[in-house]
Amino acid sequence: MPQDPAPRPAATPQLLRRVNALAVLGHIRSTDVATGTGLMARTGLTRASVIAVCEDLIRRGWIRELDSPRGDGEAAGSPRKGRPARRFELNSRAGFVLGIDIGAATTTAAVADLRGTVVGRSSESFRAADIPAAERIGVVDRACRQALAAAGAAPGRILAAGAGIAAPVDRNGNVLASRHFWSLFDVGLRSAFRELHGWTVLLENDANLAVLGERWRGSGAGVDDLVVLLAGERLGAGVLESGRLLHGRGGAAGEMGYLDLVEGVGSSDGIAALARQWSAAGNGTPGGSAGARQVFADAAAGDPAARAVLDRISERMARVIATISSFINPEQLVIGGAVAASAAMLLPGITAALPRFTATPPRVSVSPLGDAIVSIGAIRHALDYVEANALELELSPSPE
Known about the structure:
Strand content: 15-25%
Largest sheet: 5 strands, mixed
Number of strands: 13
Distance between the termini: 65 Å
Helix content: 25-40%
């Protein structure tokens, strides 16, 4: 016989108040100015409940009440007829979040307010890829402090920090450090920043954050079946399926090591790495060891050898995208990262080649977010945490 489903938690008054408060706060967050009447319509709550929730959110510091405007034709000082509409807005500077992108060579920290507007940013370089954990943490911390200084925000006003690293991270924020390169990022950042600043750090794979950022602020807005392919030095994919971020058992969903076994591909080298390798390989290609940007610039200027390099990259990327399409069947695949602006030149070749390799080609585009894509996704990840836990977070008073 089928087992009875587990009982649902009782709808206690405390739980109902929490649900109502998060619903009201969510609607206020989604608009510039909310009215009591509008909140009633969107939440189904009574006026008394809406006003009680709003007054509690005001006391907590999450929202502010605005002066009600005079009606049309109402002169200053004239008596107001009827009950004035109460108007509320999110206190977007009630606290801040951090979005951190930790690469092998550099790290970038961005401070954003509660609407996701970036108000401070800073980048720092590591002296080498293989450095001690304490040194890596120190460089990341310096970038965060400089970003906070640029934003005029004290460390105590950070409510959460999202951090992206170039290694698999499971659902609990643990790094899968089975390879040496991945182990470089397993530095204990969460515990270190908790001790230094008291911050909650949400560790995540960089490509996973990239797909969150692209769906939030990029060309993938509103797309539930979306893949972002970080394609600079090495390929890595972040995957949304039915709007849900895929991790896999150990966080390795989207890792591209399988490409070593794919005919016509043979490695997970990215677009920038391939452009450098193939331009340096002779065969009349320009500039010997020309950097990736130079190869793209030469191709744009009509250089036939550079064009040949890009044609090779286009076909190879079409094969890569076809494998992703065969496994996942996304609606859209976005090429992201610092290489995205140059990669626009590859789109015609990729689009033309894809039907040769897959019966289900996705729509392929390049991200408009550039090298900020991971930090933007980290901000979104931190905001998701803040929005879900707002009633448990203690807001620090803002400086006068």
